[in-house]
Amino acid sequence: MKKKFRRKILLIFLIISLIGLLIPQNLIIPVEGVDKNDWNPKTFWYYPWGKSVTHKGVDVFAKEGTNVISSVNGIVLYSGEINLGGNVILILGPKWRVHYYAHLNNIKTSGSKLVKRGTSIGSVGTSGNAAGKAPHLHYSIITLIPYPWRIDNDKQGW
Predict the structure, then answer these.
(1) Beta-strand (E) ranges in 84-157?
(2) Which domains does the chain have, with CATH numbers?
């Protein structure tokens, strides 16, 4: 009986995992009214960067208070304040990827809430370790499912 139950649980887990991987992402730029010229492409894998050594993400520059929008459909896992990121939001989106929005001026959503792509979730700011710097959104995508075929010896990680 226990073996049958374990197999069912494993099968359910595999099905849920596959469904999450099959959902299309359809990403959009997470700051209203900006285009690719409003961020520095060198900020994505910048080495070294302050205390974090590696700057895993991109800084999208805009006026303070500009709307930050969800780049995907997803579930808000966390919205609140942390030391380095300041006001932050974590959204679980398709492909089991977590979308991280940091340095927000304010937060317009809360945890465990479903958000649609394009929904306003906060505004550009200088919170956390961005205090005193140009207003921007630090945006990064973190995968929950590792890609072992991408392992290399790069300083930046894989």
Answers:
(1) 86-93, 97-107, 114-115, 120-124, 136-143
(2) 25-150 (2.70.70.10)
